[in-house]
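User: quick one
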Amino acid sequence: MAKEKVSEEKLKEMCHSCGIETVWQRYDAQDPHCGFGLLGLCCKNCNLGPCRIDPFEEGAQVGTCGADRDTIAARNLARHTAAGSACHSDHGREIARTLMLYGSGKASSYKIKSEEKLKKVASEYGIKIEGKKNEEIAAELGRAMLEDFGKQEEPPVFIKRAPAKQQKIWEKHNIVPKGIDRPIVETMSRTNMGVDNDYKNLMLGIMKTALADGWAGSMIATEASDILFGSPQALRAKVNLGVLKEDEVNILIHGHVPLLSDVVVTVSQSEEMLKLARENGAKGITVAGICCTANEILVRRGVPVAGNFLQQELAITTGAVEGMIVDLQCIMPGLVKVASCFHTKLFSTHPKAKFPGMEHIEFEEEKALEIARELVKRSIENFPNRDKARVNIPEESMDLIAGFTAENIFYYLGGKYRATYRPLNDAIISGRIRGVVGVVGCDNPKMQSGKSHIQMVKELIKHDVLVVQTGCSALACAKEGLLVPESAKKYAGRGLQEICETVGIPPVLHVGSCVDNTRILIACANMVKEGGIGEGIDELPIAGAAPEWMSEKAIAIGWYFVASGALVVFGSDMPVTGSANVMKYLTKDVEGIVGGKWAFEKDPVKGAHIIIKHIDKKRKALKLSAMMYDREKVKV
Amino acid sequence: MKKPIKGNIVIDADKCVACKTCELACSVAHSRSKDLVWAIYEKPISPPRIKVESTDEFVVPLQCRHCEDAPCIKICPTKAITRADRESPVLIDQGKCIGCKWCVLVCPFGVINMDKDGKFIIKCDLCFERLKQGEKPACVVSCPTHALQFKTVKEISKEKKKEYLINIKKGKKE
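Assistant: Done. Structure below.
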């Protein structure tokens, strides 16, 4: 007889009472956090220090070198942005490199799954495609994308995808990135002791660095992944810890880059592995994802998602996970200790990301299938070690629709015969949809461990805002059941509900992983191109939010949206609040430069209303009609 | 050599930014090496006798108040906790301590603790050895926002009076 299922909350309690420490206990142990760190007033950039500025103005007001609070806060933020940009862009570099290797016949585990996108992107890069085989095009495109990283004088190719207005603004302020790596290196160099000390100039450098991520590094990751692994199509799948199966081998894939996860999925479905699973007493093999690599294999293959960032340890505490295969980014080193209490084997695979206590089986693009087979095999062979008495798979699982992209969304909105952005723009113009907002980013115990996303998104769709989501934010809302068409009737305002019901989409669209925030940039550019709602992204009734941001990558993402003209609302402050000048720059002055700006609001519902107010302001400036059903309310 | 000093640790909670610098300094002051970089590798590691605690409203460093009529002294069955005179710190003699934890229970501020291994009672000793050298307690010296200060009762009351008078003056002006 199957055991009674526990809830996720119960699972957390059980861990705690067994003395298994997870992220929540570790977070509590860190409380109170260092005030200087929180305020951004600590500088460790040279050995004159470390220096700190006394926010109460009794102690030191400048560092040993004389840097004041503005300089220190701005420099710290610049370094965070550079790290975030570097992380995503490096992800892009790996996919581009694999594309090149595949084209050169060195990565036979892969194939071109979207020929259409390969040819379209190759043409954008000025590569002649006539009469060439896909392999040749892939090799040339991969190489050309890699060249984008090292360019010294030219902007990366995708920069020209931005609306002309944005490009002009960037040129005017000299923040067009030259290459992708160069602005990151430049930020590291200008934040060195005694280089750039003007916080305003540092902010411009930050924006250049972030733009290199959004309009190049991350965008390359998205596009090259679409070429190699397929351009997503809307599909139905399942999310939450309940996707793990009691009678099957459960393999979790955690991390970000789909190069390995996609191949693991393929291998796990092979007859050879299924047979091995049966021989080891399991009925089958379930592969489920955690974090963004989950999103990558979800949107392209419908692979179930076990959980988002904060669930990575809980997944292991179900006692039902044979192997967790990780690559890089957002992988908690705390996993090792948690796994040591269970039979779960942890495998690190990336040469850049090793974890003491994990077994390292290094991934190579050239031998992807072989390595994936080894990882799956090792996980299956661990099934007999599972202690059935300790298996506690929570009951929660939910359906979601995922796989929307900047390319396919107009098919869903406009249908076969009107496959353009016109219906979306018209819905905005007519006041059925108030605007479009990207709610993205991490989940964080500092905020509400994922709940903030749900509260913000519900408030937005209630006010007829179409929400697009990526990353762990999308997964948080998916678990709540917001990413199915049925949620429109339950939660959306009347205008948005009508659109959703007419075309059969959810009011909250899952557009992929964190690098896929670039799909939102492209959608914004397409909305501008379609016309009628402004000449630039800064004029559109749109915004972005990361209610529970955690990673430096979120800072880079936030910045590339701000620099592209969007309002971005973060659910907790960035570590610069110790400098009134930098805060004023972020929340006010920057709008006069690039059109976008920052807002910080802890309460997700209040955050939603900051966004709604901003969208209404933009609608007014565009002289769009009042919201369709607001007008009716007035009549009544 | 400087003259020995006496006084109390006082806290301005509004100024505490929870950086925990005082905790680090306390650990270092009670370590063998007296050096942060080395102290963190010592065994047993030197635990802090001061702890930054938080409520939803504010954060504040807490340590032994060296009570005039100290309940811990009264309750200690082996007389391990003593004080030389009214102005001296409340100290514990680890040799006499049997680890019964009565002092932990009776302390109204929760600032008496056991060490990580449950072997020793840990409490603030007001850095009495530093005081002998004329140096203020390590936490006070380390506090970057001057939330922690070292003052005699006389100084405290004098400052309080001054503050009170200033407020009266302000009130008259307004």
